Amino acid sequence: MFRFKQFSIRQDRCPMKVGTDGVLLGAWAGVRPCDRRMLDIGTGTGLIALMLAQRAPEAYITGVDIDDVSQARENADASPWGGRVAFERCPVQEFAAPETFDLIVSNPPFFVDSLTCPDEGRTAVRHAVHLPFDDLRDAVLRLLAPAGRFAVILPTPEAARFLAVCAGRLALTRRTDVRTTPRRPAKRALMEFVRADGGTEEPETSELVVGTGEHECYTHEYRALTRDFYLKF
């Protein structure tokens, strides 16, 4: 279980368990005081949606997933924020909302060319089978408010692919490359986009190291980013 300070995330019925990627994205995504409507694409256990609900006390968050969302609903009901979080089982390509969203986040399926796993549930989560990058881009463009932002986490090679898919449509404004330890190359990229408007401003870039290299020892910067979400850290 992933333990918030207020409650625990159950994950026994999800094909992929709570991992560092989701925690990083939920903590890193930019949340503005004016953001009132948020969307979590591929919500899974509802972890990121609930992290956003904790961070934005006046926002309403919707989570969508192609798989069963009953686990996410149970987690929301057990949390202090269940009244502001809703979940819908629906491919995002078919998802319709009465209003656009101020913030959209996604920890999407990401392996594009690698071999699929014999476990269909894990394949659906890990591989871009049901949500190709161009479909994700198009869904974001359709559902994002004019001044909204989109945040995503991807492995470094897939991040380059996604940037190419978004060229001219979504503009990168912020990127943090994530290393597991100081001696390892960056394995993940946290990226934030806005609608492309022809501007040429350089994105804000940074780097985050998760672990010190010693067993279960985290860096100060990772602790500072995520400490609000852990029961014990």
From TrEMBL:
<dbReference type="GO" id="GO:0032259">
    <property type="term" value="P:methylation"/>
</dbReference>
<dbReference type="InterPro" id="IPR029063">
    <property type="entry name" value="SAM-dependent_MTases_sf"/>
</dbReference>
<dbReference type="Pfam" id="PF05175">
    <property type="entry name" value="MTS"/>
</dbReference>
<dbReference type="GO" id="GO:0016430">
    <property type="term" value="F:tRNA (adenine-N6)-methyltransferase activity"/>
</dbReference>
<keyword id="KW-0963">Cytoplasm</keyword>
<dbReference type="InterPro" id="IPR022882">
    <property type="entry name" value="tRNA_adenine-N6_MeTrfase"/>
</dbReference>
<keyword id="KW-0949">S-adenosyl-L-methionine</keyword>
<comment type="similarity">
    <text>Belongs to the methyltransferase superfamily. tRNA (adenine-N(6)-)-methyltransferase family.</text>
</comment>
<dbReference type="GO" id="GO:0005737">
    <property type="term" value="C:cytoplasm"/>
</dbReference>
<comment type="function">
    <text>Specifically methylates the adenine in position 37 of tRNA(1)(Val) (anticodon cmo5UAC).</text>
</comment>
<dbReference type="GO" id="GO:0008033">
    <property type="term" value="P:tRNA processing"/>
</dbReference>
<keyword id="KW-0489">Methyltransferase</keyword>
<keyword id="KW-0808">Transferase</keyword>
<dbReference type="InterPro" id="IPR050210">
    <property type="entry name" value="tRNA_Adenine-N(6)_MTase"/>
</dbReference>
<feature type="domain" description="Methyltransferase small">
    <location>
        <begin position="35"/>
        <end position="121"/>
    </location>
</feature>
<dbReference type="InterPro" id="IPR007848">
    <property type="entry name" value="Small_mtfrase_dom"/>
</dbReference>
<protein>
    <recommendedName>
        <fullName>tRNA1(Val) (adenine(37)-N6)-methyltransferase</fullName>
        <ecNumber>2.1.1.223</ecNumber>
    </recommendedName>
</protein>
<dbReference type="InterPro" id="IPR002052">
    <property type="entry name" value="DNA_methylase_N6_adenine_CS"/>
</dbReference>
<dbReference type="GO" id="GO:0003676">
    <property type="term" value="F:nucleic acid binding"/>
</dbReference>
<keyword id="KW-0819">tRNA processing</keyword>
